[in-house]
Amino acid sequence: MKKVILVVLAIYMTVITVYGKVELDSCKGCHGQNFEKKALGKSYIVSEMSQEDVTNALIGYKDKTYGRSMKGIMVGQIKDYTNKELSETGIGKSIAFAGKDIPTYDDLLNQIKELKEQNQELTKQNQLLKKNKKYSLKDK
Ligand code: HEC
Questions:
Q1: Which of 77, 78, 88 to mutate to test the pocket of ligand 1 (most atoms within 8 A of CB)?
Q2: Is the pTM of this model over 0.90?
């Protein structure tokens, strides 16, 4: 009996993972591991779109309100998903970066450098404060 329940549970979980959300592995053959490729040489680079644009595109393919010459291919990929599922893929740039440039490696290095300098300055001030405290304690 336990075995039966486990098997049923396993099938149920599989069904949930296959149908409960958009199966992104199925996209990677065309769009690349991180959606960094132009699928079949034609699509936009999806990882560079905003999450909102990705959602609008996916729902648009389903509603037949979005797409260009190869939209038929995409309709086949997503037609069985609900709009809610299509809006929760997490693909694309998050709001924080949408429309803005993602900081470059050099930008980040510079920020780290600035933070290190600030940290050194604060450490110095902290040491000074500690020294002063010692003196004031001795004074008493
Ligand atoms: C067989 C190859 C193929 C697969 C698999 C595929 N796509 Fe696409 N995708 C394309 C093509 C080609 C386009 C451009 C279609 C057009 O002309 O509008 C596209 C367009 C898109 C767009 C809109 C970008 C644009 O160019 O306007 C999104 C978002 C997208 N795909 C997401 C996905 C997701 C998510 C999956 C997996 C569920 C997926 N794709 C699977 C080929 C594919």
A1: 77
A2: no
